[in-house]
Amino acid sequence: MSTPILEIRDLCVSYGKVEALHHINLKVAAGQIVTVIGPNGAGKTTMLSAIMGLLPSKGEIEFQGEVQRDIEVEHLVAMGMTLVPEKRALFGEMSVEDNLLLGAFMRYRAGDRDQGKTMDQVFGTFPRLKERRAQLAGTLSGGERQMLAVGRALMAKPKLLMLDEPSLGLAPLIVREIFHIIADLKKTGVAILLVEQNARAALQIADYGYVLETGSVALEGESRALADDPRVVETYLGLGGKKQ
Amino acid sequence: MDLQIALLLGQDGIVNGAIYALLALALVLVFAVTRVIFIPQGEFVAYGALTLAAFEAGKTPGTLWLLLGAGVLVALIDTVIAVRGGNPGRIKRIVLWDLALPAAIAGLVLWLEPATLPLAAKVALSLAIVVPLGPMIYRLAYQPLAEASVLVLLIVSVAVHIALVGLGLLFFGAEGSRTTPFSEAQFNVGTLTVNGQTLWVLGASCVLIVALYLFFGRTLYGKALRATAINRVGARLMGISTTLAGKLSFTLAAGIGALSGILIAPITTVYYDTGFLIGLKGFVAAIIAGLVSYPLAAAGAILVGLLESFSSFWASAFKEVIVFTLIIPVLVWRSLTSHHVEEEE
Lengths: 244, 345
Known about the structure:
The structure holds 2 protein chains of 2 kinds. Chain A is of the alpha/beta class.
């Protein structure tokens, strides 16, 4: 693996007295897609929230070669980390265009005024959003909402894009479309940390993978090797995994 | 009651309603963004009016010392936090906003002899003293509790309100004050006499409401405040910090409050504790709007103003009772028609 853009050492998160994540070590190299798969309740969302500074955690988070001591969401966003949360967290009563503009809020504060150009790029990736630019975000379909959530995150021109279950609640055709787009995004140079229950789809587009089980990393490896690992096949891919 | 009295009462009601509308908008804004029920809103009305009155009387308003003191306190706390958190780079901003700015305002006030200045300059200086108190109070009282429940924030609001009323008594004394009108002009419309200050109140309220509308609809910072109100986590993920949104909304609320006070000071005598009642009437209007809808809050405020002026004619002893009783049918109607929606977070 080349130089990591994100490196997590010994990350622990507790809810009260219950420890939900135990000593997680994880690396994301620049320009790679890294996936974290695992069953419900394994701690995947907790892990992303802790990395993003939404939850207090113990351990070391190094982003772009800099150890983050006082983890603050706003600071990390300014440095180029974005998270598309599981629940999308869109601004439902605002237009698609306003949602996208707010995605670039931190860059606007820093003095960047190229939001129009970035928005054209996002519309290039998601032509459907362009058609719906004046529509309220709350009126979009599930797939469109996911596209808007990803598009809004891209407006920040992130170095690291973290996606929490982008396939959740979407029809299979839309899931395929979303994963195509994620695979394409890699070509723009952004590193992607993809958390998924849909292990097959995630491993297909990822370079490296981790399996999270009950708050610990159970397995890790190149995603192709991981997809052939009998333990992964049995638990996460089922028999269908062999056909692919 | 003949037509002329009705017109007179109507005029009174609409003027008061316009002020309540401004305060109701500020209350809705602060609640939507920070979940704080901003009881001290009225104190900004009194501070604005009385600071201007102090300038007219040739005194240095006590609010100036409050500004300096609050600035030093905020600067101390934030500097300690910045040094501990390993962010000494922040100290420059802290010194600029919490020390240099209040000091510059104090310097201007002490050097300029405001009593000799034109009214517009006195108004500007009054706003310069009172408005920065908004974000400072947010920093000191609310920011450490930003994640607390609405009830805890309400209790903090009561405490801040009591503290500010007490300080108001200390600064301005128990005597009420009235300031000179912006305009002495009088207009006769049929049998009705409209004086210049009435038009100032209505005009300024309309301008302010349009300005707020444009701010929320057209500017990115306005949209950021709306975004925080809609989805706090989503907004944070865009880099819109809870602190930034809180300070911005408190600045707006302080500005609206102080300006309201300055507008009504020539019409009514303002005492150190007058603001509370005015703020509460704005609150009734905000409740009519369910603390969410801006247009409904403005309409509710006009209703409160009219109800107040007509009930002061028919049953003046029960004027306040009638206005505040309005909240009961409104709450009944609200609880019957609206259903509780779980927040998506």
